[in-house]
Amino acid sequence: MGHLTAVFPVLFENHNYEPGDRLPVCDTGLAREWINNGTAIWEEDNVAEKHAVKARMVSAMPGATGDAYPSAGKGLDLIGRPPSRETRGAQPEPSKKKGKSSA
For 100, which DSSP code? Predict the structure, then answer.
C-alpha cells in the first residue's frame, strides 16, 4: 500500500502539512486534485530510502595556472593558491593546545 506525500505546503482541516509529510486520504476527490495540480505525489511503501552522496573533487584544483614566485615546479603553479605543505617543504606548526597540568 502507498501513501500520499506533500510536495508543497498544504493547509487541510486547520493543519499545516509541510513538504514530505504524509497527507490524509479520507477525501478521495481532494486527494485526486492534489495529485493533478502537483501539490502531492503518490508513493509506494516498498521504495528504498535514498542515501546522501558525499561530494568529492573530480577536476583540477581551483586556481589559474601561471608563473608564481617562488615556483613549486613545472605544472604545479596555481596563481592565488599556495602550493601544498609537502611541495614547499613547510614544517608542521606546533600544537596550540595546552597540556594537562600535573597538579
Answer: P
